[in-house]
Amino acid sequence: MSKNWTEDLRQNARTFTTNLKKRGYSFFTGVPCSLLGALIDHLENSPEFRYVANVREDAALGLASGAYLAGQKSCVLMQNSGFGYSMNVLTSLNMIYKIPILVVISYRGYLGNDAPEHIIMGDKIEKLLADLEIPTFIPTPDNLEKQIELADAVIEKEKVPVVMLIKEKIFG
Amino acid sequence: MKTRDALQEIIPFVESNPAICATGHISREVQDIQDRKENFYVIGSMGMCSSIGLGVALVRPDRKVFVLDGDGSVLMNMGNLAVVGALAPKNFIHIVLDNEAYASTGNQKSLSSAVALAEVARANGYKTVYKSGSKENLKEVMKKVTQTDGPSFLLIKVGPDTDKPAPRVKAEPDFITQQFMEALNVHTSVHTA
Q: pLDDT-derived band of residue A2, with 50, 70 and 90 as boundaries?
């Protein structure tokens, strides 16, 4: 049963997915986060997208990577807690095999304002991404279209995984 | 029957279809027996071969997709059995070569002797589940596997890998990607926009 997301969040989800669709993304998989709620709701209810509910974030990256190898540009959705599980797949599969996936990660624990389990990852995720040299974009509701354009340009040119960190009040 | 013997029986049945090969000796042996563009050797990200194979199978329902997995690898990514069962692609063939050990790190014991992997696959929703333990029987089972709708799971019990392993995967990872995508007729340079 989906929650009643506000019209603002729904509109952001529409803008986001419309722009991804334009750039060839129609395969999505991931593990949910409340901050990605309106986005997942939209994907699950739009016949032009395939959203596969996955069991773990690393398995979602593996699945999306297979879809990419078969010719389908792909996107993984996760909470930043799942970034820890994902690090080995990003570094020993996606980065070295040049399998570019757009990884949309919710930014729980941003500025230390969250439940205890999110505080450390919320504080460290930008540093971890920078250390791994994974190109990272942090959009706002006003520049979603432009940020997708930039992220996809890196994916097309460099063939590396790219992360979009999603703060509160964009999709949930 | 050892891993290599089993792979020698299996590989002719793969024909020209894609095969995603598990981290460790399985990728190395497959490369040594018959290196092909359609083989995707997963040298890192242990466990991911079955997730990758599932992704290929979903996007390319016109091809039979083989995953040549190991017991350590399937135990590591056991959650993916649930994803396979839930999506149930007919063209997904999951073969597990079970030597009950982590051969490439020195034959340390895995837990597979205590786990009914075939039953786990069945409970997760794999449509057909087979077991084999001898060369003679494996050919017959492979015939059935390739002629029946999946998702299929084939558990093959093999003896310990005591022989010198085949050489490491030679191709650079990004070259493996490029070759595999070419074999599947994917044109990466073409913008889909």
A: low
**Residue B23: which CATH number?**
3.40.50.970
List pLDDT tens digits, range B36-86.
999 999 999 999 999 999 999 999 999 999 999 999 999 999 999 999 999
* Structural domain range at position B158: 3-183
Count: domains in chain B? 1
CB B23 within 8 A of CB B46: yes
The answer, yes or no, to whether residue A98 has pLDDT greater than 50, is yes
State both tokens at B161: 């890998």
| Chain A contact for B62 (CB, 8 A cutoff) | no
Q: Is the dihedral of CA B22, B24, B25, B28 positive or negative?
A: positive
DSSP letter at B88?
Answer: -
Residue type, B73: S
Domains and CATH numbers, chain A: 7-166 (3.40.50.970)
Nearest CA in chain A to B87: A52
Instruction: Report the residue from B48, B87, B193 with minimal CB separation from A24.
Output: B193
Residue B88 is assigned to a structural domain of this protein: yes
pLDDT in tens, B153-184: 999 999 998 889 999 999 999 999 999 999 99
pTM above 0.90, yes or no: yes
Candidates A63, A73, A86, A101: best to mutate against B (most CBs of B within 10 A) is A63
Comparing CB atoms, the residue among B44, B55, B86 nearest residue A66 is B55
Q: How many helices (H) and strands (E) does chain B have?
A: 8, 8
Query: Using the beta-carbon criterion (under 8 Å), do B56 and A24 form an inter-chain contact?
Result: no
Helix (H) or strand (E) holding B94: strand B92-98
